[in-house]
Amino acid sequence: MDPVVDFLGDWRWRLTNLYWIVDESGKQVPFQPNAEQLDLLGNLHSNNLVLKARQLGFTTLIDILALDQTIFTPNYAAAIIAHGLREAEKIFRNKVKFPWDKLPPAVKALNPPVNLTASELVFSNGSSIYVGTSGRSGTLQFLHISEYGKICRRYPDKANEIKTGSLPAVHAGGLVFIESTAEGTGGHFYEMVKEAEKRGPRPPNAMEFKLHFYPWWRKESYRLDPDGVDIEPDLIDYFNALEEQGIVLDDAQVAWYAVKRRVFKDDMKQEYPSTPDEAFSGAMEERYFAVQMAAARRQGRIRNVPIVAQRVNLFFDLGRDTTAIWFHQYAALEHRFIDYLQDTGKTMEYYAQQIQKKGYLLGNIYLPHDGADQSVVTSDTAESEIKRLLPGVKVRIVPRVPQLDMGINAARQKIPECYFHETNCARGIEALENYRKKWNETLGNWSGEPVHDANSHGADAYRQFAQGWEPSHELAGSTYIPPRVQGHRSTVPGMGVLG
Q1: Number of other residues whose CB lies within 10 A of the CB of residue 29
Q2: How far is CA 110 from each of CA 74, 106, 130, 368, rounded to the nearest angstrom?
Q3: For a tag site, which of 153, 228, 397, 398 has the least CB within 10 Å?
C-alpha cells in the first residue's frame, strides 16, 4: 500500500499534497494553493460569492475541491457550470480529468471510475462530477458556477435557468461557489454582490451568500520595479483617492498597475478592481456608450451640476410597460441633465404628477415617433395625454431614424457635450453606462442588436435628445408653470427663487 494512503482522511492535506495541475506556462506542477486560495479555504461558508481580479486561480481551487469531495465522499454529486462550451471542455480536461489522471495509482484504486465521458466522471462509490454550460436535474451537494457575471450579461436566459433551477438543486448543507470578475451593473451576479454588501458586518446565515472580494493589490506577485515607470497624472489622483479609502500601495504596486493599465485601458477596473464598486464600473466591449461615459467621469462631467432658474426640457421613452424621462437644461451653452425619472407599470397620470412635484418650469417635451400613435384601446395618443395633463406644454415628436445605429451614433457624439447630475440622475447614468449589445452565441461575438432591459429605456430616452433637440427650440418653449409656483414666488429645491 502506498504510504500516502495513511493521510487521506484529512481533506486539507489532500488539497495541498495530492493533486497536480497545468500552470499558466503549460507546465505540469504539484498544486500548491496561493495566498488568495488559502484565504478562501480558511473562510468557507455554505454559499460563497467570489468577486475577483483576473488570474487568481479560484476556478482551479474550487474544481479540485469538487473532485476531491466526489472521490472521497460516497454518493456525492458535484456540478460545474461554465459560461461557454469551450470553457466547459477546458475545465473538464484541465481541472478535473488531468488532476484525476495524475493521482497516485494506490489512491485511484480506492475508488475507480465506472463511467468517463468528455464532461463527466462517475465513480464506483456512487459519486459524480459533471462540467457543462447549464445545470442538471437532481440533487447536488456541490455546485460551482464559473464566471457567472459573463453568463448573466451574455446569456440572461441561461442565468435565469441557473437561478431558478441549479441553485435550488443544492442540498441543504452542500457547498455553492459562484465566482466571477464583474461584468457591469445589472444582472443576477451584480444583485447578489450588492445584497451581500448591504448586510454589512453581520455574518450570513445558512441560506445567504458570503462575499469574498479579492482585489488585484492582494496578490503578492502583482508588483514591478518602479525604476523608469512613468505614472500618469490621473493615476496619481486615483491612487490618492484609494489611500483616502485606506488602500495604501507601495511603489512596486503602483508601477505594476500603471503598466498593466496601458494594456487594458478602460477595462482595467473591471479586470483588476481595487474595490467592489470599482469592479462593476469598468468599460466593456459590448456597451454602446462605455468609452464616452468613462470619459465623462474622468473629465468631471458627472457631478452635482448646478440647476438654474430656467426652463427644463423633458425627453421621454415610452416603453410597453416602462417609461423613462430625462430632465435637461441648456444653460451657459452646456447641456445639463439635472434629473431622471423611470418607473414600471404606471399611467401617464402618475408621470405627470411626478413631473409636477419636481416643480420645474417646463420647456419642451420630446416624445419618440410613436408618441403620436393612437392607443389600440382608445383614440388617445401619448401626445394628447400629456397636453391634457400638463396644459400649455410644447410637445415635439422626434422623427424616427431610418436605422437604430444612426440614433446610437448620434447619442455617442452628443455625450461629450453633456453634464450629468450625479445624484438626481444616478439611475439614468447607470442606464447609459450599461446599455449593451446582445451576444450572438452562434458567431461568438456581440451583435448589432441592443438588449432590451431596464437600461435600454434610459438610453432610448437620451437618444431622443440626440435626435431631436435643436438650439432654436429653446426660443419656443412651453407656457406651463407647475401649480406650486403659479401666481406667487416660490423656492424650488436647487433652482433658487422663481417669480
Answers
A1: 10
A2: 12, 7, 20, 69
A3: 228
Phi, psi of 431, deg, nearest 5? -65, -45
CA distance 295 to 209: 35
Placement of cell 499558466 in the chain = 24
Helix (H) or strand (E) run with residue 146 in it: strand 140-146
Instruction: Fill in the amino acid letter for 360.
Output: Y
What residues contact residue 103 under an 8 Å CB cut-off, 6+ apart?
A: 18, 19
User: How does strand 47-52 pair with strand 170-180?
Assistant: parallel
Q: Are 161 and 134 in contact, with CB atoms under 8 Å apart?
A: yes
> Are 164 and 132 spatial neighbours (Cβ–Cβ below 8 Å)?
no
Report CA torsion sign: 23, 28, 33, 37.
positive
- Cα–Cα–Cα angle for 210, 212, 217, nearest 5°? 165
Separation CA 384–CA 276 (nearest Å) = 46
Q: How buried is residue 295: exposed, middle or buried, by Cβ count under 10 Å (0-12/13-18/19+)?
A: middle
Please answer whether residues 64 and 192 qualify as being in contact, where contact means their C-beta atoms are separated by less than 8 angstroms.
no
At 288-343, the pLDDT tens digits run 998 899 899 889 999 999 999 999 999 999 978 899 999 999 999 999 999 999 99
HEC sequence for 18-69: CCEEECCCCCEEECCCCHHHHHHHHCCCCEEEEEECCCCCHHHHHHHHHHHH
Helix axes 404-414, 454-468, angle to 10 degrees: 80
Is 60 exceeded by the pLDDT of residue 495? Answer: no
Q: Rounded distance, CA 272 to CA 217, Å? A: 9
Each residue's pLDDT tens digit, 31-67 = 999 999 999 999 999 999 999 988 889 999 999 999 9
What is the grid cell recorded at 290?
462605455
